[in-house]
Design a protein that fits this description.
Blueprint: E1 2-7, H1 13-24, E2 28-33, H2 46-59, E3 66-70, H3 75-79, E4 86-89, H4 93-96, H5 100-107, E5 112-115, H6 118-124, E6 129-130, H7 145-152, E7 159-163, H8 174-184, E8 192-196, H9 205-211, E9 214-217, H10 226-233, E10 238-241, H11 246-249, E11 257-259, H12 262-275, H13 281-284, H14 290-308, H15 312-325
Parallel strand pairs: 1-2, 1-3, 3-4, 4-5, 5-6, 7-8, 7-9, 9-10, 10-11
Helix pairs in contact: 1-14, 7-9, 8-12
């Protein structure tokens, strides 16, 4: 099987892991990315996406079995080629962000759609597969906390709360995390340091997960945050707001807590820091391995291809008619 992947997030660790896992199953994957660059203060332009279209169209005449559009903004370009069935993966912000209407429209004309959580499925309100991004359990695994702290140069006598993003990413709500940690300082005898993952290579994140006492997630919205799954693989306790599929992921995990209010977040964080134990997350997270993810995506591909025989002309006509109406 040869799959053409479209993406605007080619450097995303979850996407890279997905490609690695699919290729591990013998699927040949070719990736083409939206041209242009993304920085902390800018995104790709309309012109970048316009330049993407002829590249996708040309590639669609190659020896591929299907196109997999990864992230909603790549879906229109997958659908405007006449040759291949289309699988669409939605990641979260491409569904609930300001351009979510693009994802919703395109999902109606794709041959299959994958979302990251049951909440996204309810939000999309159509038939789709729930397949969250997986975790590499050989990379994210428990190690002695003292060794991780020593390698990072953190204070071994302090408590360390990990905010696993850059502080300036507004949707992740770092100010709320700061407020929660500040409120907890009076309840915990040790010093508390709020550690951020600014410019931390993904390969180094297992060190952060193992050195920290707790992961704190205060995002305004999420799909299926991989940082929570990675924390589980390292047995790092998690305190999180109720976003995406976090409640589902933390079901049966202790100590960890899903909270709705600042007061609940403060109480849960103080309790976990005071208890000072690791979680049972790894044994609860077997279903989110990269291998399991690849098996399920491969099954989607097979399902789509089994239904596609002889449908090329019909598909092309239906897409053109439907998209022209919209």
């Amino acid at each position: 099987m040869h799959v053409l992947h479209l993406t605007s997030k080619e450097n995303s660790p979850p996407f890279e892991l997905q490609i690695e896992a699919l290729e591990g199953r013998g699927i040949e994957c070719t990736t083409i990315s939206v041209p242009g660059t993304v920085t902390a203060s800018s995104s790709r332009s309309v012109a970048d996406y316009v330049r993407f279209h002829p590249t996708v169209l040309k590639e669609s005449f190659g020896s591929y079995d299907l196109i997999h559009a990864n992230y909603g903004l790549t879906a229109p370009f997958a659908l405007t080629q006449p040759n291949l069935p289309v699988v669409l993966s939605l990641w979260g912000t491409d569904l609930d962000g300001e351009l979510g209407w693009v994802s919703r429209l395109c999902a109606a004309y794709c041959d299959a759609t994958i979302v990251m959580s049951e909440g996204m499925k309810r939000d999309l309100d159509r038939d789709c597969y729930v397949i969250p991004h997986g975790v590499d359990f050989e990379v994210f695994e428990p190690m002695p906390r003292s060794a991780a702290i020593d390698r990072l140069g953190w204070d071994p006598d302090a408590k360390h709360v990990l905010f696993p993003y850059k502080a300036e990413r507004e949707v992740k709500n770092y100010p709320r995390a700061e407020q929660i940690v500040e409120a907890v300082r009076a309840d915990v005898p040790e010093p508390i340091h709020l550690q951020t993952a600014r410019d931390v290579p993904h390969s180094k994140m297992p060190l952060y997960m193992n050195a920290a006492d707790c992961l704190l997630l205060t995002s305004d919205h999420e799909g299926s945050p991989n940082v929570v799954k990675e924390a589980l693989a390292c047995n790092l306790p998690v305190v999180s707001v109720d976003v995406g599929d976090v409640r589902e992921r933390l079901d049966g995990v202790a100590p960890s807590e899903v909270c709705r209010t600042d007061a609940e977040l403060q109480l849960a964080l103080a309790s976990i820091l005071d208890e000072g134990t690791r979680s049972n997350g790894r044994e609860q997270a077997e279903g989110i391995s990269k291998e399991r993810m690849a098996v399920r995506i491969h099954d989607v591909y097979r399902n789509v291809l089994s239904r596609d025989d002889g449908r090329r002309d019909e598909r092309t006509a239906n897409r053109r008619e439907s998209l022209s109406r919209n």
